Amino acid sequence: MSDARMPAGLIEWLQQSKARDVELAFADVHGFPRGKTLPAPAFIKGQQLRIARAVPLQSCVGEFPDYSFYGEHDPDVTLLPDYDTLRLVPWAKTPRALVICDCVDHDGSLSPLAPRSVLKQLLARYAARDWTPIVAPELEFYLFAAHGDPAQPFQPPALPCGRRETGFDAFGFSALGELEAFFDDLYRACEVLGIATDTCVHEMGPSQFEINLKHGDALKLADDTFLFKTALKETAHRHGLSAVCMAKPLSGQPGSSMHLHQSVVDRRGANVFSQADGSASPAFFGFIAGLQRFLPQLMPLFCPNPNSYRRFVKGMAAPVNLSWGLDNRSVGLRVPVSGPEARRVENRLPGCDANPYLALAASLGAGLAGIEQGLTPDEAAHGNVFKQQAASLPSTLDAACAAMAAGDAAEALFGPDFCRAYLAVKEVELNDYHRQITSWERQYLGLLA
Fold it and tell me: What SS3 state is found at 157?
């Protein structure tokens, strides 16, 4: 990078902001922010930063897969800033900025191991058709009391009225009002970060909420979701709270999803899923068929952790199938009621623990493959699918990874380097997970003769 590539207006803005540093950040495979910090004057002058090529593959337990997945000599990548994402850090006491970066290999190509690269390369396939995917994530999360002991269960926070939520508050306003200071700061952070939010609702679980992001370009919405989840956790910490994006943090309570609304527009801005007469197009049905065909092989990208699969419980509005239907929440692929210009498909599989870059790449990639291959979906489902069908998706991360490894969809969409490395990360995590002794085992098996 050189100072000539940074727009003059941004240089002036950064200087006027008095930012001392700039965080050069990217999302690892979990969507966790990683990177390096550079003094603002050095950033303006175009100083390059490099980081180990393996960093996007760091597992949630801190270990890395074998060197063979990222380079036997442990090489670097260059952090290339996307200047459109340069923002102030809302929670910083001393002014500093952040910018989202691409990880670039020594030959100048995007590193296939970085989640943002995976999405950008998939979107290039849409661009080759002069198409642009339009997406809108719906993010559910829990707000808990500050939590420092993983051996203890999460607890809803003590509200100013003196109570802790136990239920009954779904779709109400009282908890939102009592947590007003937190939400005020969260919305201020979103404004600083340029994140356009939409509706907010108290969800079904105690102290569970959902905030939707306004629809737009897929790469921008992936960036926004990445930044939103970071802002959510940082803001919660500053209010003595824990914001938790686990798929299933409380036993017996609803899980947290990240539903993805998806449509596609052409160069004129017309919805590809609708024909001139307003009826559904062949592309619409091909997109749904692609999701039905390929999502079972891509589940580790939507549900990336062992805990993710605890969310799929019948009767709790979590899909356990790949049926599709109009305005039907018992199906995995819901088509909301809308006019032709807003015809879209809601993928209800991803959990809130999913990496937004990878979840969007997998969903959009499966849909595009269905269009390209001229696939036809099943008949639309009617009524409550939970009562009609058995679960048709992998029920554990082990099974999901086996399905991804055995199929060819992931490699066809994202290339072998990423797919093999991603599965290697999951193997590291699963090996650690299966070594743990749980409280259930101590409670019930410790008494057996």
Answer: coil
Answer yes or no: are the C-beta atoms of 290 and 369 closer than 8 Å. Answer: yes
Taking a C-beta distance cutoff of 8 angstroms, is the pair 227, 213 a contact?
no
At 122, which helix (H) or strand (E)? helix 115-127
Report how far apart the first and last C-alpha atoms of the chain are (Å, whole number). Answer: 67
The set of residues, in sequence order, having a beta carbon less than 8 Å from that of 55 and lying 6+ positions away, is: 28, 34
d(CA 360, CA 56): 17
Please report where in the chains the tokens 């808990």 appear, as a residue: 144
Examine the pLDDT at 389 and tell me if it is beyond 80: no
pTM given for the model: 0.96
Q: Give residue 252's region: left, alpha or beta (phi > 0; psi -120 to 50).
A: left
Phi, psi dihedral angles at 233 (to 5 degrees): -70, -40
Per-residue pLDDT tens for 220-249?
A: 999 999 999 999 999 999 999 999 999 999
pLDDT tens column, 96-110: 999 999 999 999 999
> DSSP 3-state assignment of 141?
strand
